[in-house]
Structure formats: C-alpha cells, structure tokens
Amino acid sequence: MTTLPLSSQLINLGAAVLLLTSFAMLSQRRIVSLVNLFAIQGAALSASTAIVAYTSGQHHLYYSAALSVALKMLLLPWILHRLIRRLNVRWDTEPLINIPTTMLVGIVLVVFAFGLAQPISQMSTTIARSTLGIALAVVMLSFLMMITRRKAISQIVGFLAMENGLFFAATSATYGMPMVVELGVALDVLIGMVILGVFFFQIREQFDSLDLQHLEQLRED
Amino acid sequence: MEVLVILAIPLLGCIFLGLFGARAWAAEANVGISLATLLAAAALTMRVMNEGSLLVGHEQFFVDPFNVFLVALTAFVGWTTSMFSRPYMRIEEKHGRLNAVRLRLYHSMFQLFMFTMLLALLTNNLGLLWVSMEAATLSTVLLVSLYRTPASLEAAWKYFILCGVGLAQALFGTILLYFAAEKVLGAEGTTALLWTHLDAVKGQLEPTVLSLAFVFLLVGYGTKVGLAPLHNWLPDAHAEGPTPVSAVLSGLLLNVALYAVVRCKILVEGAMHSGIAGRLMMGFGLLSVVLAAFFLWRQRDIKRLFGYSSIEHMGIITFAFGMGGPVANFAALLHMTVHSLTKSAIFFAVGHAAQKAGTQVMDDIRGLMVISPTIGWGLMTATLAILGMPPFGVFASEFLILTTAMKEHAWATPILLLALGIAFAAIFQRVQSMVFGETDLKKLPHSPALVPVFAHLAIVLTLGIYIPPSLALWYRLAAALIG
Amino acid sequence: MSAGSVIGLVEAPLAVLLAPLLIGWIDQCRAWLQNRRGAGVLQPYRTLRKLLHKDAVIAHGASSLFRVSPYIQFGAMAMAAAIIPVFSVRAPLGVAADTIALVGVFALARVFMALAAMDIGTAFGTLGARREMLVGFLSEPALLMVFLTASLISQSTLLPTIVDVLGQIHLTIFPSLAFAAIAFVMVLLAENARIPIDNPSTHLELTMIHEAMVLEYSGRHLALIEWSSALKLFNYAAIGVALFVPWGLAGRAAGPMELALALPIAAAKLAIAGAALAIVETLSAKLRIFRAPEFLATAFLLAVLGLLVHLLLER
Do B145 and A214 touch (CB under 8 A)? Predict the structure, then answer.
C-alpha cells in the first residue's frame, strides 16, 4: 500500500466530502439543511481547488477558488436563505420515490459514473485526476435529486450542486477552464439565480405554494 | 470592426430599453435597433463575401460562410419580428394581458436575446459559445412567463429546468473537449478552446474522449434544438409565451443551437474517422420527426401544434446534417433558412388569428377567411409552405434531403416519408378547418399589417424557384466546410 | 510470546467484566448532560447483583428455548469479546474467526433473542422480535460493507491483521474509512438499541424494540440478558475503536511496556467513545419506526460509498 503525498490525500478528502454532501442532500427533507449542505459543498470545492493550485503551480486556479468562495459559499447561500425566509418554505413534501430507493438508485449512478470516468482519468495528467469519477458522480446525484424532488427550491439546489460537480470535473481533468469561460459560467449562474428569485415570487403569487405539483397541468392530453 | 458593432448594438439596445422600455415609443425604438443590427449584419456579410473568412478580435471572433448567413438570417428575422410585435403587443396591452412594466422587460430582454444569439454565432471560443447559449436561455425564461398565467409559469419553469440540465451536459461535453484539446494545443490562454485551432488539429485529438464529449454535447445542445426525447419544453414554451417570443424561439434559437451541434460535429468527425457522430445525429433526427408527427394529431392548441412542427423540421435538418456530404449539407442549410422564415411567418399569422378569436384552442377558431382575408390567406399560404408544397423553398430542401437519403440510407426514407405524410395530414386538416368555415365573429374594420408574413413568404417562394448564385455559392462553401 | 498469550487470556474475561462499567459511564454522561446527578458508574453492577438474587419467574407456555436463550446470548457475546482486540492485537480467538464470522456471531445472538421473545406468544414479544429482525436485516449488510472496506485496505479479513495494518499507517487520511466510520456509528446506534432508533430507558411499550423482547424475563435470565446487551455495546465500541483509531493497541510484537500502556489507552479511548455516544444520544430525537429503514439505508449506502471511494481513489 503506497501512501499518497499529503496534497493528494487532502484533495481526495475534499472530493469525499463533496460526494458525502451530495448523498446527504439526497436524504434531506429540511430545505434549510439543503442550503447549508450546498455551502459545505462550496467550501470543499474551494479548498480542493486551492490545494490543486498550490501543488500544481497553476495560479489562475487561485482566482477560481476565490470565485468559488465568493459565489458558492457566500453569495448563493445568502440569496437562497433570503428566498426561503421570504417565501416561508421549510420542509419538502414527500419526494417522488421514497428516500431509501432514491439512495439505492444513487449508488447505482455512482458506480456508473466511476466506470465512465475511468478511461478519461487514465489519460489525464493532472494531480487530481482520480477524482474525475467523483465529480461525475456528484453531477449525476444532483441530477437525481432534481428529478425526484417536488419543491422548486430543492430542484434549484440540485441544479447548483450539478454546477459544482461540473466545476470540480473541470478542475480535476484539466486544471480548470480558461478564466474568461469560468467568469462567464459564474456570471450565468448568478444571473440565473436572480432570475429564479423573481420567478419564485411569480410562482408563489400564482399558486400560493412552491410545490411543483401545481406545475404539472400542461401535459400531453 | 463590423463584428463589434453587430454585438454592441443589441447590447446597448438592451440597456437603453431597460431604462426607457415603458415609454410609448419603446416598440418603435425596438424596431430601429433591430434595423441597425440588420444593417451591420449586411455590411459584415458583404465583407465576408468579398474577403472570405475573417478572424477578429485576438482570434476570439470567427466569421466564415457557415455562420455569416446565420447572422444575416438572425438579424433579418429579428427585425421583422420586432416589426410584427409592435402592433401585436399594443393590442395585447389594450386587452389587458400586459402592462407597461412588463413591456419594458419584454423589449430589453428581446434585445438581450438577440445579443446572446449573435454572440453565440460569432464567437470562436467554445466556452463562450456555451455561456451565450445559457444566457439566451435565461433571457427568454422571463419572456415565456410574461403573461403570468399558471400555464405560462409552468412552461417557463419546465423550459428553465430542462434547458438548464441540458446545458449542464453540454458544459461537461465542452470540458471533455477542452481536455482533449489541451493535450494537443497546450493550456496557454484560450487557444485550446478556439474552434479554428481545434479545426486545424482535429485529426490529432483523442477519439475516445471526443466521442464521449460529442454524446454530451449532442444531448446538451440537442435539448435546446428540441430533439426528442428532450423536447418537452418546446411545445409548452411556444404555446404559453407571447407570439413574438414563439417566433424567435422557433425561428432563431433552434437554429443557433443546431449550429453549435454542427460545429462540434465537424471536430468530432475529423478526430474519429468513423461516422458515429453522423449516425447519432441521424438517429435523434429521425426520432424527433416520427415523435413529432404522431404528437401532432393530439394537439388542441394552435401554437403547440406549430411547436411540434418545429420539432419535426429540426429533426429533418439534424438528420440531413447527420447524413453529411455536399448535397445533404446544402439542403440542410437551405432548410434552416426557409424553415426559420416560414415558421416565424406562421407564428405571426397565428398570433393575429388567436388574438382576433380570443383563444388558442383550434376547435374554437373558425372562418378566419371571413374575419380577415389577410390573416386567412396568410395562414393558409404559410401552412402550405411549411408542409413542403412546391414551389416553396421547403419543398426544394425536403426533396434534396429525401433523394440523398434514398441514395445513401434507403432504410430511413420510408420512415421520413411516412412521418412527413402524417404531419401533412394533421396540420393541413386543422388549418383548413380554421381558415375556412363559418364564424360568428365580425369582419375586422381594418386588416392587421401582415407585411412581415408576406415578406417572409415571398423570400421562401423565391428560394424555392430560384436561388441567387451568390447565395448558392455561400451554401456550397458552408456545406464544404461542414464536410 | 508468553506475555502476549497471557494478556490474550486475560483480555476476554476483562472485557466481560468491564462491559457494564461502560454502560454505567454512558448513563452517567447522559445524566450530566441532562443536568441530573445520575446514579453513579457502578449502577449496572448493582442492578445485576439485585437481579441475580431474585427468582426467575417463567410463563407456563415457555419452552426450553426460553430458558436456554439468555445463556446462548451471553455465550455468543463473550465469544465475540474474545475475537475482538480490545487492548492487544492478540485476542484469544482473533485468528480463529474473522470479521465475517463475527457478524455471524452477532446474528446468532439476535436470532435467539427474537425466537425467545416469540416463544411465549405475547403481542409485545412478537412486536419486538419483528422490529429487531427488521433492524438486523438492514444493518447487517452495512456492517459487512464496513468490514469489507477495512479488509480491502488491509488485504485480510482477520481483525488482528486489519488492526495491525491500520495501526502502522502513519496518519494517512483515508476518505473511505471516514465514510465507513460514519456508517459504523449509525449501525452501532441501531444494533444496540440506542437513540435515534430505540430508547433504552423507555417505558412505552409501543415504541420499544429491544425492551419489548425482554419484557418476560426476570431474575438471573434478565441479568444475563442485560449483561449481554452491555457486552454487545462494549464489543461494538471496541470494534469501532480498533478499526478507526487503532493507535495505541499493542501490536503483535509488543513488549511488556507497550502492553502496560495499552490498557489505559484503550480505557481512555472507550471512555471518550462512551461520552461521544452520550452526546449523540442527547442531541438526537428518537426516529419514528417507519423512518428507521431510511436511517439504516443511509448507513448501508455510506458504507458502499466508502467501498467505492476506496476502489477509485486509493488504489
């Protein structure tokens, strides 16, 4: 058993925390906890990025890490908490399939993601290449969360967690995308959240609730 | 230079209309800004026709025959839509479905949408392409829900979530593409994401990574094109949004998304030396055509009907691009043009029809010919055009696609013909009963200005009969580029 | 080493004797956290003494299974204590049975307890038995997965070998072990009838799992059963400490100095574990019974995740 260098261990730890938070999100019913888990995910992500930046000497990753901290640990959770308070949603209704089954499906997706990422990991030369499977797993778990949840805010947290996973994938496979692209993505996410905030109020105004069961009228008749 | 002007005008227009969009002259300002964009696009087109491909702005913007005609088309349809939306939105405001504040949002988002689409078309950076596609989605989400009805909120929500998830897949595909490119081009600056550089080295990119990347990119951008089975957002967004938004969604956004797919396909085919990318596109295209044809029968809402028709046509274009080769690509490019023009014309006519009848349910719309011959004839002609009747341009492109399919992929031809036939029957039957027949509604005192409709249809008719040599050369150059 | 084997012989009886002390310590911690004075850490011994003096009253319909079951449970738990390395790796039965056999031993105890509870035919006995089997059915796979992860890291299923290997790796962060640790704690709470799965001090029959099964027992039988529950908790705590904080355990080649140190270190680790358990119990609320499968499913899946993470990251 070879011992990995400390930096790799820390990156692996960050990746494990990311995976753990994604799984925890799947089993959470309280919406406030979901947002807090998302903030923890952002913290793990920023820490991993900073460590990769330190060990690989790619200094633009420091900016990425700072951007993550600002956006995903501070700004987005603040916006979400404000929304939750003003819309007064606290608990999610029963998800589409019950939680144990959701978690079983989640495990299957994790295995699938690990298998899918194997060939690419082997081709990568970055320091964090073995964590690509975890990044892809986070994306898939967030996707699962989005499709099994009823409340609009839970779906949005799932969507943002998916962006986290993609960001981590970029860091682990290619030391991140060029800064201009990352800034663009961050801007998109931020504007998307602002628009969604406005949108939630419209939904709330119309339906008096953020339960998405109300939004299932348009169907193939 | 022209590139920066083309991009600056809608962006500044968005800010300007964001401030002043609630005034009485906002709609006219919208038309003016769109006209300015069109003139800049025309200037750019002339320059590219004379000088060939251009690489501008530190290699960040790239204009070749493929995207320059799309830029011109986008600017043109944007302008005619803004002309159509002027009286249309005024009547909506009078009916009480909108107020001045929402009109301000509408006008500024319209220009922002034009900006993001033009940026997507002109950028050389695949990452920026993604960013602008996402921005285009965001700018239209609020537009789809403009009426604030429960159905429109649901449509906008579905649109946001489905396209957001789809674009997340596309982002992953872009990351994989960057990963493959970085190995060959190095990680300096943005070189590894620039399409021109990727195109130059596409033979050296890792095939396995690229095939995986293409799957994600096809699924991701394909969601925005409306390919089945990810098309769920399209009929709802078309039905519940205001008509000008449906027109630009169908006429422009689907094209730009497909443009993104084709750009990636060029890279993947160069790296893979196997036709898997093309076959994937053909498969999704056929699936969309068949699915749309069957769903067309069950529609009750007129805009949903034509939304499904858009899915069908985008399926045909995707199928054609999947086949590849000079004839199929030529036909696909032609079809993109004529579909864009015809579909927006249809939506213009449908918008007025629904406005007069006060409902979008087809069973409740009757006797359009009696109410207003302009609307009646406009809708009838446009429907015949979109269904592929000669001598309209759609017939020419569909004919080319079918003959190429018969030659190279004979198994697909009966499926295509059957689907096209089913769609023909479904749409024609509905439109005929809407246009003819009797109605209690009174004849209109003055006919609505349907100049954009007839202008579009005139162009489509011309293209069906005679394609100007410069345009044909353009298409052929683009087709050769696509491979 | 003769010193080692002597220590090994002493280890199991010492564990059996000290198990009620652990329970007493946990109860005392809980009392302090709840601002009470508590009954002292030796209270379980007093309870045991009291029960041993009393007569065992047995129902008419009870079969011999009912009478034999407490002994079997106690025997199983004592055997488990002999397998698990508490302060020395040279547990007496450590090389005779591996982790999978250990899970089987625990299952043996559980089965006999459930059968005995159903033996008399009362409603509460059957209720408790059914619930216990449900918890066991869900927690056993999780426990196996935790052991499997540890075994993959140390390339062996024998507990002494696992502890040896894990103890010698100097301060490496194993995310897979972190997942496995969380899963193990959840399984520990479930198997030992602790909050949030079951309240050990409840008197409400309808919410009972473990207590419902022992309602009919009295006298020496009850004493044995209480002792084996205490021993079960001790065993689980010892497994947790051995797997996840193995430093300080006397290794195979340990001299008398290290053996002498190992005992207080082990005692300190178990005391801290007990205090942590008391804190967890005080901070959580008891879950409703139909949420228990969710809790255990989470444990199972965390354990599987740990396994997958190990396969992905630590190869």
Answer: no
